[in-house]
Protein backbone atom coordinates (compact mmCIF):
# COMPACT_ATOMS: atom_id res chain seq x y z
CA UNK A 1 0.00 0.00 0.00
CA UNK A 2 1.27 3.44 -0.91
CA UNK A 3 0.61 6.21 1.58
CA UNK A 4 0.40 9.84 0.47
CA UNK A 5 0.28 12.91 2.69
CA UNK A 6 -2.04 15.52 1.15
CA UNK A 7 -4.21 14.73 -1.87
CA UNK A 8 -2.28 17.32 -3.90
CA UNK A 9 0.72 14.96 -3.86
CA UNK A 10 -1.25 12.05 -5.28
CA UNK A 11 -0.93 10.90 -8.87
CA UNK A 12 -2.13 7.78 -10.64
CA UNK A 13 -2.03 6.70 -14.26
CA UNK A 14 -5.02 4.49 -13.55
CA UNK A 15 -8.55 5.60 -12.86
CA UNK A 16 -9.44 5.18 -9.19
CA UNK A 17 -12.16 3.51 -7.17
CA UNK A 18 -12.45 5.72 -4.11
CA UNK A 19 -14.04 5.93 -0.69
CA UNK A 20 -13.89 8.82 1.76
CA UNK A 21 -14.07 9.06 5.54
CA UNK A 22 -12.29 9.33 8.85
CA UNK A 23 -12.57 5.54 9.33
CA UNK A 24 -11.88 5.76 13.06
CA UNK A 25 -11.82 2.21 14.34
CA UNK A 26 -11.79 0.59 10.89
CA UNK A 27 -14.75 -1.36 12.29
CA UNK A 28 -16.88 -4.00 10.56
CA UNK A 29 -19.02 -1.32 8.92
CA UNK A 30 -15.92 0.30 7.45
CA UNK A 31 -14.61 -3.11 6.45
CA UNK A 32 -17.77 -3.76 4.43
CA UNK A 33 -17.24 -0.55 2.48
CA UNK A 34 -13.60 -1.42 1.87
CA UNK A 35 -14.42 -4.96 0.74
CA UNK A 36 -16.76 -3.47 -1.87
CA UNK A 37 -14.02 -1.04 -2.85
CA UNK A 38 -11.52 -3.85 -3.35
CA UNK A 39 -13.99 -5.96 -5.32
CA UNK A 40 -14.78 -3.06 -7.66
CA UNK A 41 -11.08 -2.29 -8.03
CA UNK A 42 -10.31 -5.87 -9.04
CA UNK A 43 -13.27 -6.05 -11.40
CA UNK A 44 -12.34 -2.84 -13.23
CA UNK A 45 -8.55 -3.18 -12.87
CA UNK A 46 -8.39 0.27 -11.31
CA UNK A 47 -6.63 1.54 -8.19
CA UNK A 48 -8.37 1.16 -4.81
CA UNK A 49 -7.99 4.42 -2.89
CA UNK A 50 -9.08 5.74 0.51
CA UNK A 51 -9.11 9.46 1.21
CA UNK A 52 -9.04 10.05 4.95
CA UNK A 53 -8.37 13.07 7.11
CA UNK A 54 -6.15 13.99 10.03
CA UNK A 55 -6.84 15.53 12.43
CA UNK A 56 -10.47 14.47 12.82
CA UNK A 57 -12.74 17.22 11.42
CA UNK A 58 -14.48 17.59 14.79
CA UNK A 59 -11.18 18.54 16.39
CA UNK A 60 -10.78 21.38 13.91
CA UNK A 61 -14.32 22.65 13.44
CA UNK A 62 -15.73 22.21 16.93
CA UNK A 63 -12.55 22.53 18.97
CA UNK A 64 -13.79 19.30 20.50
CA UNK A 65 -10.73 18.25 22.46
CA UNK A 66 -12.85 15.71 24.28
CA UNK A 67 -13.37 13.54 21.23
CA UNK A 68 -10.91 10.67 21.43
CA UNK A 69 -9.94 8.34 18.62
CA UNK A 70 -10.22 4.56 18.69
CA UNK A 71 -7.06 4.32 16.57
CA UNK A 72 -3.93 6.40 16.38
CA UNK A 73 -3.02 7.41 12.85
CA UNK A 74 -0.35 4.71 12.79
CA UNK A 75 -2.76 2.01 13.98
CA UNK A 76 -5.37 3.03 11.43
CA UNK A 77 -2.86 3.06 8.58
CA UNK A 78 -1.67 -0.44 9.47
CA UNK A 79 -5.23 -1.79 9.71
CA UNK A 80 -6.06 -0.34 6.29
CA UNK A 81 -2.84 -1.69 4.79
CA UNK A 82 -3.68 -5.17 6.08
CA UNK A 83 -6.98 -5.05 4.18
CA UNK A 84 -5.11 -4.86 0.88
CA UNK A 85 -5.58 -1.29 -0.35
CA UNK A 86 -3.53 0.16 -3.17
CA UNK A 87 -3.44 3.75 -1.96
CA UNK A 88 -4.09 5.64 1.28
CA UNK A 89 -4.28 9.42 1.09
CA UNK A 90 -4.09 11.19 4.46
CA UNK A 91 -5.12 14.78 3.94
CA UNK A 92 -4.45 17.39 6.64
CA UNK A 93 -7.88 18.69 7.59
CA UNK A 94 -7.95 22.42 8.32
CA UNK A 95 -10.41 25.29 8.15
CA UNK A 96 -9.40 26.25 4.62
CA UNK A 97 -10.15 22.74 3.37
CA UNK A 98 -13.45 22.72 5.27
CA UNK A 99 -14.61 25.75 3.28
CA UNK A 100 -14.73 23.82 0.01
CA UNK A 101 -18.32 23.52 -1.14
CA UNK A 102 -19.67 20.09 -2.02
CA UNK A 103 -19.33 20.94 -5.72
CA UNK A 104 -15.76 22.23 -5.34
CA UNK A 105 -14.77 19.15 -3.36
CA UNK A 106 -16.09 16.79 -6.03
CA UNK A 107 -14.73 18.73 -9.00
CA UNK A 108 -11.37 19.91 -7.61
CA UNK A 109 -10.45 16.97 -5.42
CA UNK A 110 -12.23 13.82 -6.58
CA UNK A 111 -12.42 14.43 -10.32
CA UNK A 112 -9.54 16.73 -11.27
CA UNK A 113 -6.93 15.39 -8.84
CA UNK A 114 -7.94 11.88 -7.78
CA UNK A 115 -9.27 10.83 -11.20
CA UNK A 116 -12.20 8.77 -9.90
CA UNK A 117 -14.27 6.41 -11.98
CA UNK A 118 -16.35 5.19 -9.02
CA UNK A 119 -17.14 6.51 -5.55
CA UNK A 120 -18.27 4.15 -2.78
CA UNK A 121 -19.70 5.69 0.38
CA UNK A 122 -21.32 4.59 3.60
CA UNK A 123 -24.88 5.38 4.63
CA UNK A 124 -25.71 8.95 5.70
CA UNK A 125 -22.50 10.32 4.16
CA UNK A 126 -22.17 14.12 4.11
CA UNK A 127 -19.34 16.23 2.78
CA UNK A 128 -18.33 19.74 1.79
CA UNK A 129 -18.80 23.04 3.61
CA UNK A 130 -21.19 22.65 6.56
CA UNK A 131 -21.65 19.01 5.47
CA UNK A 132 -23.99 20.27 2.76
CA UNK A 133 -23.29 17.45 0.29
CA UNK A 134 -25.34 14.25 0.39
CA UNK A 135 -26.08 11.13 -1.65
CA UNK A 136 -28.61 12.88 -3.90
CA UNK A 137 -26.10 15.57 -4.82
CA UNK A 138 -23.46 12.96 -5.49
CA UNK A 139 -25.82 11.29 -7.92
CA UNK A 140 -26.09 14.60 -9.81
CA UNK A 141 -22.32 15.09 -9.77
CA UNK A 142 -21.79 11.50 -10.93
CA UNK A 143 -23.87 12.22 -14.02
CA UNK A 144 -22.14 15.57 -14.51
CA UNK A 145 -18.58 14.25 -14.20
CA UNK A 146 -19.15 10.69 -15.42
CA UNK A 147 -18.36 8.59 -12.36
CA UNK A 148 -20.28 5.72 -10.79
CA UNK A 149 -21.73 5.92 -7.28
CA UNK A 150 -22.53 3.19 -4.76
CA UNK A 151 -23.93 3.57 -1.26
CA UNK A 152 -23.30 0.83 1.31
CA UNK A 153 -26.15 0.43 3.84
CA UNK A 154 -25.59 0.51 7.59
CA UNK A 155 -24.03 -2.63 9.02
CA UNK A 156 -26.02 -4.16 11.87
CA UNK A 157 -25.15 -6.69 14.52
CA UNK A 158 -28.02 -8.04 16.61
CA UNK A 159 -30.15 -5.21 15.19
CA UNK A 160 -27.65 -2.60 16.41
CA UNK A 161 -26.09 -0.28 13.84
CA UNK A 162 -22.31 -0.35 14.14
CA UNK A 163 -20.68 3.04 14.58
CA UNK A 164 -17.45 4.51 15.95
CA UNK A 165 -19.50 6.35 18.58
CA UNK A 166 -20.99 3.10 19.91
CA UNK A 167 -17.53 1.56 20.06
CA UNK A 168 -16.12 4.52 21.99
CA UNK A 169 -18.99 4.21 24.48
CA UNK A 170 -18.32 0.50 24.90
CA UNK A 171 -14.63 1.13 25.57
CA UNK A 172 -15.32 3.87 28.10
CA UNK A 173 -17.72 1.64 30.03
CA UNK A 174 -15.46 -1.42 30.13
CA UNK A 175 -17.47 -3.39 27.57
CA UNK A 176 -14.30 -4.43 25.79
CA UNK A 177 -15.72 -7.65 24.35
CA UNK A 178 -18.62 -5.75 22.76
CA UNK A 179 -16.18 -3.21 21.34
CA UNK A 180 -13.99 -5.97 19.91
CA UNK A 181 -17.03 -7.62 18.30
CA UNK A 182 -17.99 -4.33 16.63
CA UNK A 183 -14.40 -3.69 15.56
CA UNK A 184 -13.86 -7.15 14.12
CA UNK A 185 -10.47 -7.32 15.88
CA UNK A 186 -9.11 -6.68 19.38
CA UNK A 187 -8.83 -3.08 20.55
CA UNK A 188 -5.19 -2.13 20.91
CA UNK A 189 -3.00 0.26 22.85
CA UNK A 190 0.34 1.14 21.26
CA UNK A 191 2.98 2.89 23.32
CA UNK A 192 6.56 3.11 24.46
CA UNK A 193 7.80 1.35 27.59
CA UNK A 194 9.11 3.97 30.02
CA UNK A 195 10.71 3.91 33.46
CA UNK A 196 8.35 3.49 36.38
CA UNK A 197 8.82 3.31 40.14
CA UNK A 198 9.53 -0.44 40.10
CA UNK A 199 6.91 -1.03 42.78
CA UNK A 200 5.52 -3.99 40.86
CA UNK A 201 8.89 -5.75 40.90
CA UNK A 202 9.16 -5.30 44.65
CA UNK A 203 5.90 -7.19 45.23
CA UNK A 204 6.48 -9.90 42.65
CA UNK A 205 4.55 -8.38 39.75
CA UNK A 206 7.01 -6.52 37.50
CA UNK A 207 5.23 -4.22 35.10
CA UNK A 208 6.01 -2.42 31.88
CA UNK A 209 4.82 1.17 32.09
CA UNK A 210 3.30 2.22 28.79
CA UNK A 211 3.32 5.81 27.57
CA UNK A 212 0.80 6.63 24.85
CA UNK A 213 2.33 9.47 22.84
CA UNK A 214 -0.86 10.51 21.05
CA UNK A 215 -3.02 12.65 23.35
CA UNK A 216 -6.07 12.04 21.14
CA UNK A 217 -6.00 8.25 21.69
CA UNK A 218 -8.99 6.91 23.60
CA UNK A 219 -7.98 5.20 26.84
CA UNK A 220 -10.61 2.69 28.01
CA UNK A 221 -12.27 2.60 31.41
CA UNK A 222 -9.92 2.37 34.39
CA UNK A 223 -9.48 -1.11 35.77
CA UNK A 224 -7.77 -4.44 35.18
CA UNK A 225 -7.85 -6.23 31.82
CA UNK A 226 -6.74 -9.59 30.45
CA UNK A 227 -4.42 -8.88 27.52
CA UNK A 228 -2.18 -10.34 24.86
CA UNK A 229 0.84 -8.77 23.22
CA UNK A 230 3.28 -9.82 20.54
CA UNK A 231 6.90 -9.07 21.38
CA UNK A 232 9.65 -10.05 18.94
CA UNK A 233 7.13 -12.21 17.06
CA UNK A 234 6.15 -14.15 20.20
CA UNK A 235 2.68 -13.82 21.75
CA UNK A 236 2.55 -13.33 25.53
CA UNK A 237 -0.38 -13.29 27.93
CA UNK A 238 -0.70 -10.77 30.69
CA UNK A 239 -2.86 -8.39 32.67
CA UNK A 240 -3.02 -4.65 32.36
CA UNK A 241 -4.04 -1.94 34.79
CA UNK A 242 -5.33 1.45 33.73
CA UNK A 243 -5.75 3.93 36.55
CA UNK A 244 -4.25 6.24 39.12
CA UNK A 245 -2.77 3.61 41.46
CA UNK A 246 -4.88 4.78 44.42
CA UNK A 247 -3.16 2.41 46.87
CA UNK A 248 0.22 4.06 46.20
CA UNK A 249 -0.21 7.70 45.20
CA UNK A 250 -3.36 8.19 43.16
CA UNK A 251 -2.07 11.25 41.32
CA UNK A 252 -1.55 10.43 37.65
CA UNK A 253 -3.08 8.00 35.21
CA UNK A 254 -0.80 5.10 34.41
CA UNK A 255 -0.99 2.14 32.05
CA UNK A 256 0.94 -0.83 33.43
CA UNK A 257 1.15 -4.34 32.05
CA UNK A 258 2.36 -7.47 33.80
CA UNK A 259 3.36 -10.20 31.36
CA UNK A 260 3.19 -13.82 32.42
CA UNK A 261 6.36 -15.86 31.77
CA UNK A 262 8.28 -12.90 30.39
CA UNK A 263 10.82 -10.72 32.20
CA UNK A 264 13.14 -9.25 29.55
CA UNK A 265 14.01 -5.56 29.57
CA UNK A 266 11.53 -3.68 27.36
CA UNK A 267 12.57 -0.12 28.20
CA UNK A 268 12.47 2.12 25.15
CA UNK A 269 10.61 -0.40 23.00
CA UNK A 270 7.27 0.36 21.40
CA UNK A 271 4.79 -2.44 22.02
CA UNK A 272 1.19 -3.08 21.04
CA UNK A 273 -1.23 -4.60 23.52
CA UNK A 274 -4.59 -6.20 22.70
CA UNK A 275 -7.29 -5.87 25.36
CA UNK A 276 -9.51 -8.95 25.56
CA UNK A 277 -11.61 -8.76 28.72
CA UNK A 278 -12.34 -6.31 31.54
CA UNK A 279 -11.71 -8.12 34.84
CA UNK A 280 -12.45 -5.64 37.61
CA UNK A 281 -12.71 -2.00 38.62
CA UNK A 282 -9.71 -0.15 39.98
CA UNK A 283 -9.70 -0.28 43.78
CA UNK A 284 -7.81 1.28 46.67
CA UNK A 285 -6.43 -1.31 49.10
CA UNK A 286 -5.63 -0.82 52.77
CA UNK A 287 -2.09 -2.12 52.40
CA UNK A 288 0.50 -3.22 49.86
CA UNK A 289 -0.01 -6.81 51.06
CA UNK A 290 -3.72 -6.57 50.26
CA UNK A 291 -2.81 -5.25 46.80
CA UNK A 292 -0.38 -8.14 46.27
CA UNK A 293 -3.02 -10.68 47.30
CA UNK A 294 -5.50 -9.18 44.85
CA UNK A 295 -2.94 -9.21 42.04
CA UNK A 296 -2.38 -12.91 42.63
CA UNK A 297 -6.13 -13.47 42.27
CA UNK A 298 -6.19 -11.24 39.17
CA UNK A 299 -3.44 -13.29 37.57
CA UNK A 300 -5.35 -16.54 38.06
CA UNK A 301 -8.53 -14.95 36.70
CA UNK A 302 -6.67 -13.53 33.71
CA UNK A 303 -4.95 -16.84 32.93
CA UNK A 304 -8.23 -18.73 33.07
CA UNK A 305 -9.90 -16.07 30.93
CA UNK A 306 -7.16 -16.05 28.32
CA UNK A 307 -7.43 -19.80 27.79
CA UNK A 308 -10.76 -19.08 26.10
CA UNK A 309 -9.01 -16.76 23.63
CA UNK A 310 -6.19 -19.14 22.71
CA UNK A 311 -6.55 -20.22 19.05
Would you mind describing this structure in some detail?
This protein is an alpha/beta fold and 311 residues long. The chain has 2 domains: 2-161, HUPs (Rossmann fold, 3-Layer(aba) Sandwich); 186-307, Riboflavin kinase-like (Elongation Factor Tu (Ef-tu), domain 3, Beta Barrel), CATH 2.40.30.30. It has 10 helices and 14 strands. The chain has helices spanning 28-44, 57-61, 73-82, 95-98, 102-111, 135-145, 164-172, 176-183, 199-202, 288-307; strands at residues 2-5, 16-20, 47-54, 87-92, 116-122, 148-152, 156-157, 160-161, 188-194, 208-211, 223-231, 234-243, 254-259, 270-280. A 6-stranded parallel β-sheet has the order 1-4-3-2-5-6, sandwiched between helices. A 6-stranded antiparallel beta barrel has the order 9-10-13-12-11-14. Helix 7 packs antiparallel against helix 8 (176-183). It is elongated and about 75 Å long. The two termini are 29 Å apart.
Q: Tell me the CATH superfamily of the largest domain.
A: HUPs
Instruction: Work out the oligomeric state of the chains in this entry.
Output: single chain
Fraction in beta strands: 25-35%
**How is the largest sheet built, in terms of strand order?**
1-4-3-2-5-6
Record field, number of beta strands: 14
Tell me the series of helices and strands, N- to C-terminal: EEHEHHEHHEHEEEHHEHEEEEEH
Assign the CATH architecture of the largest domain. Answer: 3-Layer(aba) Sandwich
Average residue pLDDT = 92
Cα radius of gyration in angstroms: 22 Å
Q: Report the biggest beta sheet as strand number plus sense, adding barrel if it closes.
A: 6 strands, parallel
The secondary-structure class comes to alpha/beta
Residue runs with pLDDT of under 50 for 5 or more positions: none
CATH classification, class level of the largest domain: Alpha Beta
- CATH topology term of the largest domain: Rossmann fold
- The termini sit apart by 29 Å
Helix share of residues?
A: 25-40%
Amino acid sequence: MNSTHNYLNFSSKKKTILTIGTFDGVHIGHQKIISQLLAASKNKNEASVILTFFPHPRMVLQKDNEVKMINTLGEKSKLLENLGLDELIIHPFDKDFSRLTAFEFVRNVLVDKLNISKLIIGYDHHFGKNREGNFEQLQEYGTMFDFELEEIPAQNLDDITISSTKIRTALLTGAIEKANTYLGYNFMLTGKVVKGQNLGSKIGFPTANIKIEESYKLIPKAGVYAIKATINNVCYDGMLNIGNRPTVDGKHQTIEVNFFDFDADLYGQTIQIELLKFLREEKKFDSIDDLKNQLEKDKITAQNTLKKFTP
